[in-house]
Amino acid sequence: MPETAPSSRPALWWARPASGAWTCAPAPTQVRAFHASLPEYAPTPLTELPSLADDLGVGRVFVKDESSRLGLPAFKALGASWAVHRALAERAAHGAETGPVTLVAATDGNHGRAVARSARLLGRRAHVFVPQGVHPTAAAAIAAENAEVTRIAGTYDEAVRRAAEAASAPGAILIQDTAWPGYERIPGWIVEGYSTLCAEIDEQLAAAGAGMPDLVAVPVGVGSLAQAVVTHYRAHPSGWATALLSVEPRTADCVLQSLVLGEPVSVTTGETTMAGLNCGTPSGIAWPLLRDGLDAAIAVDDADSARAAGDLAALGVFSGPCGAAPLAGVRAALSGEGADERRTALGLGPASTVVLLSTEGSAANPHGAAPG
Q1: What whole-number distance in Å separates Cα of residue 293 and Cα of residue 57?
Q2: Which of 119, 138, 357, 366 has the fewest Cβ atoms within 10 Å of its own Cβ atom?
Q3: How many Cβ atoms sit within 10 Å of the Cβ of residue 196?
Q4: Looking at the predicted structure, is the pLDDT value of residue 267 above 80?
């Protein structure tokens, strides 16, 4: 397990602009075709917001709006559906397709609902572990997918441990979006599933005459979506060096602190309205790509995210606290003391194109953490 970071956690910004020169292998091409075959598939909107570009002092700002993805109010359905497809296909290939199957997961909200939805559509069972701090409405939405929901009085990391224990039962498969030694293949499939989101952005920017983005800002929990984003932009054949910025809550900044220390660490998490990002340990398979492929990382407060969500809503993009975090992070990076240095580190100028990944709609997780 990673070491625990110092409790003070003073760092709120980390940057290494040379990351744009690092390259990696691309995601498999068949993922997009799989998603396109699903009945509810359609690309989510990429909405241009000129007023935000003016506010941030850049050329163009686009928001990838994941408020409705495969019938759910968050992007997580992309990873869950692909991973469940691969896991069940592998089970069948090994002659274990007979008998009941239970898909097991831990969640801060959106991933668990996506796993439960996949299970329901395929006639399978689901058992989802929900940690303290997830709003009762989010837990109820998981239960409404006919899943068994177990709420625990502990953190997300503790919920992951409980789910892993439950998945050791006969006929159970753990569909988890964080990896550790010995559990890496299924989290890898989940990351592959997120590649569809990035492929859509390429097509939508091209249609808008924008080309490749100069900056993509991505919210981070354990880092799986950020891993997919790094994979996409660091494997892009154009050689364009898109800057990549991760954004986390100050109370759950495990990736930022790991980057500062140069090794994966766990942090003690606190309460945050950004419930889907309230994770204390980076995914084991995500960490090497985040370490080598991110240009910068920043941590923001709940108030920053709430302000960003309100501003997005006023412009017609209805985002939950996690989805609004990228705007909050870019604002924090480009304002206040040291803003010029941070702007330079991100390679941003008055003609730059910025993409913000709004990973959840306002219906995904109510604004405000649940009590207890």
Answers
A1: 25
A2: 366
A3: 26
A4: yes
3-state secondary structure of 99: coil
Q: How far is CA 184 from CA 9, 177, 187, in A?
A: 28, 9, 5
The phi and psi torsions of 276 (rounded to 5 degrees) equal -70, -10
Q: How far apart (Å, rounded) are the C-alpha atoms in residues 215 and 199?
A: 16
Total Cβ atoms within 10 A of residue 303: 10
- Looking at residue 312, the DSSP 8-state letter turns out to be H
Alpha-carbon gap, residue 215 to 238, rounded angstroms: 15
> What is the secondary structure of 68-96 as a DSSP string?
SBTTBSBTTHHHHHHHHHHHHHHHHHTT-
pTM of the complete model: 0.92
Output the six-digit token pair for 244. Answer: 């990549």
Q: Where are the alpha helices (DSSP H) in the chain?
A: 30-36, 50-56, 77-93, 110-121, 136-143, 156-166, 185-193, 195-207, 224-234, 254-261, 287-293, 302-314, 321-333, 339-346
The catalytic residue positions are 76, 108
The length of the chain in residues reads 372
Q: Under DSSP, is residue 4 helix (H, G, I), strand (E, B) or coil? A: strand
Of 2, 51, 77, 40, give the one whose Cα is nearest residue 268. Answer: 2
239 Ramachandran zone, left/alpha/beta (phi>0; psi -120 to 50): left
Residue 54 CA: distances (Å) to CA of 90, 93, 343, 349 = 50, 54, 15, 12
Copy the structure tokens of residue 174. Answer: 């753990």
Q: Which of these, 147, 168, 171, 169, lies nearest to 98 by C-alpha position?
A: 171
Quick one: 168 exposed, middle or buried, by C-beta within 10 A (0-12, 13-18, 19+)? exposed
Q: Cβ-count burial of 44 within 10 angstroms (0-12 exposed, 13-18 middle, 19+ buried)? A: buried
Q: CA 217, CA 220: separation in Å to the nearest integer?
A: 10
Token pair recorded at residue 234: 């660091």
Handedness of CA 366, 369, 371, 372 (dihedral sign): positive
How far separated are the first and last CA of the chain, in Å rounded? 27
pLDDT digits (tens, 9 = 90+) for 105-162: 999 889 999 999 999 999 999 999 999 988 899 899 999 999 999 999 999 999 999 9
